[in-house]
């Protein structure tokens, strides 16, 4: 099976090189790995001890970040090397100060894996959520370097749990991990069935990350004045279908303020949103504190501040649910905001949990959006109850980072 796997990696490498001629992301993927041996060799301190973190992309980085930063804090004798598979992670975090080296993960060939491991000589390795690269995993196992996966989540339809030859081959990879830290009991049941016992249900480190973000939230005096004493709905990471629903509600609302932070902040998209609105609206970049309270809608036309803005909200609407899937809802939940989103949320455990607990509310259309918001806005008890549900949900799930570090470093 390893022969077929390695052939697959080879063909993928050829495909991505061809794609790089036409696709910018593929071009970054290829260019970032060019001469990786030379670049990594000059960056590695041969006298240092390294801990290696690997993430597929930006989302996994944010998930693994609390563990990385806590290790950096508690064990400063180690240097950190951080690798990414995807350009969308590397290009955004290539200057991340929490790591001593940030690099692309070389393609998973046997030769690359052996050279990479020999250069870095990591003492411990952490893969985040679902990265399973056979040659790296085998190389670490052969050199007796402990490999952990954190915030992993398994589903029954994954190859690991099939009785096919491929399934059995993939399942062997799980035995090569020193320990597997998983998010939920469903994953535990699947691992048990597969004969995998070296796991701990530690939860999701994203809860630690959003709690960390909340503690360091930036203050915005202009947003505080915009809100005043009004109930405020914050719509985060919205797309066109979300914005059209929200605009219909906003245009017929009263005594409510709205903050819209669209996923796409290009001027053409901001203009499109403004054209949907009949209420007085102003862009964040053009807002003036002297008259900001005269507007009903504040449109965020910049990036990087949404997670801090949730502190000013009473209700959140998270976009993406009418597309491939909802965006991060935990940043809103950690500020105890009841959450609305579109119908495509079932792949996200925290969304399913909060829907079941009545802290989050999926909507299929404008009628459902209007009905749900009316219940929350017109009855303070409903709003308060849903807020407390979200607050308690986040609080009970914080602590995964501490559990992982205690286990890995044998702390009691």
From TrEMBL:
GO CC aspect terms: plasma membrane
Keyword Transferase appears in the UniProt entry: yes
Keywords annotated in UniProt: Cell membrane, Lipopolysaccharide biosynthesis, Membrane, Transferase
EC annotation from Swiss-Prot or TrEMBL: 2.4.99.12
Transmembrane regions: none
Role, per record: Involved in lipopolysaccharide (LPS) biosynthesis. Catalyzes the transfer of 3-deoxy-D-manno-octulosonate (Kdo) residue(s) from CMP-Kdo to lipid IV(A), the tetraacyldisaccharide-1,4'-bisphosphate precursor of lipid A.
Stated name of the protein: 3-deoxy-D-manno-octulosonic acid transferase
Source organism (scientific name): Draconibacterium sediminis
């Amino acid at each position: 099976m390893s022969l077929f796997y390695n052939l697959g990696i080879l063909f993928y490498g050829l495909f991505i090189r061809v794609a790089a001629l036409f696709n910018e992301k593929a071009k970054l993927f290829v260019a970032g790995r060019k001469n990786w041996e030379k670049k990594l060799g000059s960056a590695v301190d041969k006298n240092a001890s390294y801990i290696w973190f690997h993430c597929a992309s930006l989302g996994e980085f944010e998930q693994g970040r609390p563990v990385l930063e806590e290790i950096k804090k508690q064990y400063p004798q180690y240097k950190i090397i951080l690798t990414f598979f995807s350009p969308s992670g590397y290009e955004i975090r290539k200057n991340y100060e929490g790591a001593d080296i940030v690099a692309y993960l070389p393609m998973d060939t046997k030769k690359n894996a052996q050279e990479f491991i020999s250069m870095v000589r990591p003492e411990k390795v952490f893969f985040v959520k679902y990265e399973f690269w056979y040659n790296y995993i085998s190389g670490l196992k052969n050199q007796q370097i402990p490999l952990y996966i954190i915030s992993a989540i398994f589903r029954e339809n994954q190859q690991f749990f099939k009785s096919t030859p491929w399934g059995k081959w993939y399942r062997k990879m799980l035995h090569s991990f020193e320990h597997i830290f998983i998010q939920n009991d469903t994953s535990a049941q699947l691992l048990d069935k597969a004969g995998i016992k070296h796991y701990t249900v530690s939860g999701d480190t994203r809860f630690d990350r959003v709690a960390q973000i909340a503690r360091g939230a930036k203050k915005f005096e202009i947003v505080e004045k915009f809100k005043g004493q009004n109930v405020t709905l914050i719509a985060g990471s919205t797309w066109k279908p979300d914005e059209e629903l929200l605009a219909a509600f906003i245009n017929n609302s009263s005594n409510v303020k709205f903050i819209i932070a669209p996923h796409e902040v290009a001027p053409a998209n901001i203009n499109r949103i403004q054209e949907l609105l009949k209420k007085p609206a102003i862009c964040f970049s053009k807002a003036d504190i002297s008259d900001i309270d005269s507007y009903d809608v504040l449109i965020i036309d910049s990036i990087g501040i949404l997670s801090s803005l949730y502190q000013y909200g009473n209700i959140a609407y998270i976009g993406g649910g009418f597309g491939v899937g909802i965006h991060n809802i935990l940043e809103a939940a950690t500020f105890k905001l009841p959450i609305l989103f579109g119908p495509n949320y079932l792949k996200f455990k925290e969304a399913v949990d909060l829907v079941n607990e009545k802290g989050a509310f999926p909507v299929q259309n404008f009628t459902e959006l209007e009905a749900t918001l009316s219940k929350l806005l017109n009855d303070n008890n409903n709003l308060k109850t849903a807020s407390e549900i979200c607050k308690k949900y986040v609080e009970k799930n914080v602590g995964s980072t501490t559990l992982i570090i205690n286990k890995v470093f044998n702390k009691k």
